[in-house]
Amino acid sequence: MDNLKIIGASALVSCDNAFSVWENGAVALASGHIVDIGKLETLRRTYPNAPLKFYRHCALLPALVNPHIHFEFSGHKNTFKYGGGFEGWLTSVMRHRESVFKGLDRHIQQAIRVQLRSGVGSVGAISSHGLERETLARTPLRVVFFDELIGSTPHALEQNLADFERRCALSRQHASAHFIPAIAIHAPYSVHKTLAQRVLDKIDLKTPISAHFLESKPELEWLESKQGWFGHFFSDILRVQHPVYSYENTQDFLDLFSKRHLLLVHALFARPEHFQHAKKIAAQVHVITCPRSNRLLSGQLLDLTLLRAAQIPYALATDGKSSNMDIDLLEELGYALFTLPGNLEDNALELLLGCTRHASQALGLSNGSLEVGKVADLSVFPFTKVNTPLEIVLGMVRAKKARALYIQGCQVF
Ligand code: MCF
Ligand code: FE
C-alpha cells in the first residue's frame, strides 16, 4: 500500500466501543486513514517496509475534540461580569462585547495554539460575526464552523436573515474536510421562532445544529411561564416595547429540531421531559457540557444522572474565554473529573469519551476513536498507566500538554 506508515506507543487507548487498550500498540495509516490496528510487532511483520514512529513511555489516543468554543471572544479577560448570575453576565456582554474584539487576530492565533498543544485536533467553533473564519480556515485544526443565528425581534427578521446568510455563504467558500460549515441557533431567548424556522427550512438534515439551551433559570421561566428576568432583558436592555413570546414552551423550541443532528449546549436547567422530548424529536442528540463556564455563569454543574436516565451521551467543551478562565480542554477535563458528582470511575470513562468519541459523533466527524476506517487524527501523551479510564484521564490532566498530534495522518508537532 502506498504512503503507508506505522505510529506506535508503549500504550494505545482506542476509545472504541469495546474500549480496547493495547500494550505496545500501533496503528497503520494510509491516505490519512487508519488501515490497521494492533500490537506493534504484528503490524511490523505485516508491513515490513512501512516507516515507523514509536513513542516510548507514551500513550497513543485519538486526537481530542473540543465541540464548543467561541474564538471571537479569545481576547476577553475581565470585562464581563461574573458573580452576578447569568443575568449579570448577559447584561455585561450586551454592553461591552465590541470592546473585547480589539487585537483579535493575535488572540485567536493564541487560542488555536492552546487547542493544538493540549492535543485537540477538532473544534466546534461558534461564530457570532465571522471574525475568526479566515484564520481558522488556515490552521491545521479540523473545524466544524457554526455560523450563529441571532435575532429576537420580528421587525429585524429580514435583516438578521440576510446577515446570517451572507456569513454562511462566506463559510461555504472554505468547505473542505478541515472546515465543515454548520449552524448555531444561539438560544431560545435570542432567536425568534419564525427566524429559526426560515433558516432551518433551507438547511439539509445532516448539518450539525448547535444551540445554547436552558443555561439559566430565568431562561426556563421565560420559556415555560413568560415571566421573570427576561421580560426586563427585552424591554430595558433590548428596548423591545412588547416582547413577543415566540415559543409556547420548551417543547415548542425543541420541535424546531425535528430529525436534526442536534447539540444542546449546557442544558443545566433541563428537566427529564425536556431530554426525552429532544431525544424523540431529533435524529441524534448530544448534550455539550462546559463545567467551568456553568459554574461561573449559573453557579452549578450539569446533573449527569438525568442524561443517563434519558440515555443521551454528553461531550465536554471549554466554551469561550467569554465565560471561562482559559480554553484549555485538559484543564476542563481535570476540573470536570474533580467536581462532577457521581462515581469517579464512571465519570472518568464518560469524560474520556466526552472529549474523544462522543464529541466527534456530536460534530458529525469520523475521528474520535482508533479504529480501522476512521480518520487518522491522533494524540500522544507522556504516560503509560492505562489500566482504567481514571488512570488515563489522570495521565492526560497531569501531562498538561500533548507530546505529539497528527491530523489526517499529518504530524502537526
Ligand atoms: O456559552 C456562553 C454563554 N452563553 C451564551 N452565549 C455565549 C457564551 N459565550 C459567548 N457567548 C456569545 C454568544 O455566541 O455571547 C453572545 C452571543 O454572541 C450573547 S447574546 C448577544
Ligand atoms: Fe457558548
Structure in words:
The protein is an alpha/beta fold and 413 residues long. It folds into 2 domains: 5-63 and 369-411, Urease, subunit C, domain 1 (Roll), CATH 2.30.40; 64-363, Alpha-Beta Barrel (TIM Barrel). It is built from 16 helices and 15 strands. The strands form 2 sheets. It has an 8-stranded parallel β-sheet with strand order 5-6-7-8-9-10-11-12. Helix 14 crosses helix 16 (389-399). The longest helix has 16 residues, at 157-172. The relative contact order is 0.17. The mean pLDDT is 97. The structure holds ligand MCF and fe (iii) ion. Fe (iii) ion binds next to loops. Residues 60-399 form the Amidohydrolase-related domain. GO terms for molecular function: hydrolase activity, acting on carbon-nitrogen (but not peptide) bonds. This is Amidohydrolase family protein/Chlorohydrolase.
Number of individual domains: 2
What ligands can be seen in this structure?
A: ligand MCF, fe (iii) ion
User: Overall 3D geometry?
Assistant: globular
Helix/strand structural class: alpha/beta
CATH class of the largest domain: Alpha Beta
What CATH architecture label of the largest domain applies? Alpha-Beta Barrel
Strands of the widest sheet, in order across it, are 5-6-7-8-9-10-11-12
How many strands in all?
15
Annotated CATH topology of the largest domain: TIM Barrel
- How does the major sheet shape up? 8 strands, parallel
State the distance separating the first and last CA atoms.
Answer: 25 Å
Beta-strand proportion: 15-25%
What fraction, in percent, of the residue positions are helical?
A: 25-40%
Instruction: Please count the helical segments.
Output: 16
The fourth-level CATH homologous superfamily of the largest domain is: Metal-dependent hydrolases
Could you tell me the mean pLDDT?
A: 97
Oligomeric state of the chains in view: single chain
Query: Compute the gyration radius: what is it?
Result: 21 Å
Low-pLDDT residue intervals, each spanning 5 or more residues: none
Pfam families: Amidohydro_1
Organism: Helicobacter felis (strain ATCC 49179 / CCUG 28539 / NCTC 12436 / CS1)
Domain Amidohydrolase-related: 60-399
Keywords: Hydrolase
